[in-house]
Design a protein that fits this description.
5-stranded parallel sheet; cytoplasm; Glutamine--fructose-6-phosphate aminotransferase [isomerizing]; alpha/beta; 15% strand; 369 residues; binds fructose -6-phosphate; single chain
């Protein structure tokens, strides 16, 4: 059942190119137009939306954080992302023009379910992004976009996360299409890149041996820090979450711009820091800022593990370990940049003798508070 792999998690990491392709299947037309009629939310309603609120927990929350960058950039609709457990006990301001997106692999997470009930009571339209057919969250939502990751057995989410990202991009692009924002000039080229992204994920998977070796060499450490900016920030959070739950190590993700506001005090000789570097093309100011951040932490003794785009020469002098990922548009980079972090966490857990598929204290589906 593990298809020749030692763990479900390894199998599910390997299945990601297919999961991504399956989630795109039938949803992009020949001319690059999004075909999401399956949502059955009238165009009139989508045109009226004046606020998007994403609610989710854990890894699904990280997908939501990334979606915010895409939604605001491509549609110019303000977007908030909130942990479902916080949202439900607040007094959020919603009305009939609010689109609430609930992201959940299992479709049964209690906090996410309660958050969406709360949203519907206030008249918001609720769209579920879910991997489990017929589960409670899509059943109680106004609309659903299913991710087609297939069953995810390992407790740590991998392929479901990548497909949640794909679904979020599809929703963002579709909103842009329906509302006519930035369509031909920006959205269309991205759709073409998205349509091919499964192949790029496959290429990343083919180059993971050095990442596994690096992970094994760090098994004796007790802290790993992660830094990112823009969409690389949620990727850093996700890398840290994977490491906590699988390797039981102290792992924290930071927005690189926050370094000087506190976290840089944690940097001492030999502490491994994973840095997610945005593409040097396009919005290169982000890239240049990240390169200075790497220099800063390295000058203070950090062991730098740099995830950067193929061909990025600027990072080479400052990377103790360099992990290259294929070039993608900035907003899509999380689809390729997350994969090495999954492999890293899985291998570190194995090296530390942990049970990869069933980490201690965790359950696959959190149906209680
Ligand atoms: C982490 C992980 C959890 C889930 C979270 C939400 O690897 O799997 O953080 O992402 O419990 O679960 P779903 O998506 O089923 O609502």
């Amino acid at each position: 059942e593990k298809g020749g792999y030692d763990y479900f998690m390894l199998k599910e990491i390997a299945e990601q190119p297919k999961a991504v392709a399956d989630t795109l299947l039938g949803r992009i037309g020949a001319e690059g137009q999004l075909t999401l009629d399956e949502l059955r939310i009238p165009a009139q309603v989508l045109k009226m939306v004046d606020k998007v609120v994403i609610v989710a927990c854990g890894t699904a929350f990280h997908a939501g954080l990334i979606a915010k960058y895409a939604i605001e950039h491509w549609t110019r609709i303000p977007c908030e992302v909130e942990l479902a457990s916080e949202f439900r006990y607040r007094d959020p301001i919603l009305d009939a023009r609010s689109l609430v997106v609930a992201i959940s692999q299992s479709g049964e997470t209690m906090d996410t379910l309660m958050a969406l009930r709360h949203a519907r009571e206030q008249g918001a339209t609720v769209l579920a992004i879910c991997n489990t057919n017929g589960s409670t969250i899509p059943r109680e939502s106004d609309a659903v976009l299913y991710t087609h990751a297939g069953p995810e057995v390992a407790v740590a989410s991998t392929k479901a996360f990548l497909t949640q990202l794909v679904a979020c991009y599809l929703v963002a692009l579709y909103l842009g299409q329906v509302r006519g924002t930035k369509w031909a000039d920006e959205i269309l080229p991205v759709v073409r890149d998205l349509a091919r992204i499964g192949e790029e994920v496959e290429r990343v998977l083919e180059t993971m041996e050095p990442v596994r070796e690096l992970a094994r060499s760090l098994a004796g450490h007790d802290t790993v820090l992660f830094l990112g900016r823009h969409v690389g920030y949620p990727v850093a959070l996700e890398g840290a979450l994977k490491l906590k739950e699988l390797a039981y190590m102290h792992a924290e993700g930071f927005a690189a711009g926050e370094l000087k506001h506190g976290p840089i005090a944690l940097i001492e000789e030999g502490v491994p820091v994973v840095v997610v570097v945005p593409s040097p093309r396009g919005r290169s100011v982000l890239h240049d800022k990240m390169v200075s951040n790497i220099q800063e932490i390295r000058a203070r003794g950090a062991l730098t593990i740099v995830i950067a785009e193929e061909g990025d020469r600027a990072v080479v002098p400052y990377a103790d370990h360099l992990i290259l990922v294929p070039a993608t548009p900035t907003l899509l980079q999380p689809l390729v940049a997350t994969v090495p972090l999954q492999v890293f966490a899985c291998e570190l857990a194995t090296a530390r003798g942990n049970e990869v598929d069933q980490p201690r204290n965790l359950a696959k589906s959190v149906t209680v508070e």
